[in-house]
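Q: Convert this sequence to structure tokens.
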Amino acid sequence: MISVVIPHYKGKEKLYTNLRHNLPFLKNCEIIVVNDYPDIPLTFEMAQLFPQITVIENENNLGFAGAVSAGISTVKSQFIFLLNNDVLLNGDSFQKALLHFEKDKTLFAVSFRQIEKDGSFVGRNKICWKNGFFQHTKADAMKNGINGWAEGGSMLFDKNKYDKINGFDILYSPFYWEDIDLSYRAWKAGYTVLFDSSVTMQHHHESTIATHFHASYIKTIAYRNQFITIWKNVSDSKMIFEHLAYLIKNLITYSFKGEGEFFSGFWMAAQLSKEIMEKRGIQKVMWKKTDRQIFDQFK
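A:
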């Protein structure tokens, strides 16, 4: 059995519409919806409309990492399918991805091909180290293979390995980079992340976030979480030196350009430095691969 965890934030009508579409493809799955919008409880309505679904009501808004963690903590299965409330399944073929875990005992997660609003295929990504920063680019979503990270909106993963690497990090709340961080920690612990192009679903990225948050705030959080990812995970001494050098350069450059989001993101991350270093220390004992070994796979 697969446990399906669906985080929800605002827009219950869209959630209900998408659930009606997706439920026929989730047969024999445990389904958990985590309501991360405490102002409007869902338990009563969901019990009437979807009695087969378990609802978790967060007392406070926890952001993506906190919401899915609340759901994951209650699941009954070893394998968990994270499904955003704005994703439409095209079938139940994601369940066949369990075969990947039987073939590869080091496999942490599988992610799938997604159809964007413009009809393009996305979901496969490359990670790289460039100009002193952890960066990422799109990869060919028509081919199977390793993936830089399993995207949180539609990923199937092994909970046993998830627990070993300490799961999603709530430092990334409310959104962005938490799935990159999780997968990078998996890579560094010696696990693998795959992309399966044979499973396709519709997902219009950022449709929920862009609706409810200002563009400047979104950009600031993205920068903050990029810093958190680097400071928490990168251990290569040359890369750390490069990061410090380019950080100084970028702080000056962006200041002259009037792009305050970069500095704001840096400052927000700096205020979390104690927590970041504590988490780095916890993860360090699990490191088996070097940063260069990981990045070199995607050249």
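The mean pLDDT is 95.
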